[in-house]
Input
Amino acid sequence: MRGRRAGRGDARGAAQLAEAWSWRRGWLGPSLIDLHCHILPALDDGAIDLEDSVGMARQAESDGIDVVCATPHIRSDHDVRVDQLEGRVSAVNEELERLGIGVRVTRGGEIAEEAVGRTDDDQLGELSLGRNGLWLLIEPRPGPLGDPTVETVEQLAERGFRCVIAHPERHPGERFREQLETLVARGALIQVTAALIAEGPAAPFLLELAAEGLVHLLGSDAHSSRAGRPVRLSEGRDRLSEVERLKPYLGWIVIDGPAAILRGEPVIPPFASVPPVS
Ligand SMILES: [Fe+2]
Output
């Protein structure tokens, strides 16, 4: 069924975008990819206007991020029209090019679980990361992470999609670790918010999860250049370097893994989850 979705050709486009920009900045070192950012202007609760989007792109550039995946909320409290996304992304990219900012925006969406059932496969393909037709960024339903999220991942797998679970740290509960392990066993990848693992009260717990192999990706989940978390991944990556077993994989977490996702590849993390040390 996936063949009828429009995403495959664009997966190549997104991958070429990522690779071209990585090559362009190669002399500065490998560039990072942010798979979770509300950079499109006046659409959800993200960037207020184009100037704000540009400010977010400047933050990304200063952090060594070349590609930002625009992931507006696909949720009943935000009126985001899928057919408008291409034009919105193009408008931001044209402005970034005009200003000489070395960042490009690619397609995506942060799809709330409640929206999955009423969104058809073609629309999900349009909302996939890099419009690759495979990987979806899924926002868990409110409350503790539970069996329904596992069922959502299973249902999407039956529909031909794989899931990146956005910021599960916002959904603590009694069986949190067990649920994460189950999600991973079902083929999901776990993305935590870079700023929260970099510092703050949640950081020690997130580092424990990372040591258990239950953190695969970082996202900025930035909403504005004027307030809140910036478009920044490097501090989270640097904090992850405290986890001995992840040291060989820091580049995979912020560069190679996201690039493979944008290419629409069936990514398998290079490190396995392990039981917590008691
Ligand atoms: Fe988000």
Remarks:
- Residues 36, 38, 110, 166, 221 surround fe (ii) ion (CB under 6 Å).
- The chain has one domain: 2-262.
- Residues 113 and 140 are 6 Å apart (CA to CA).
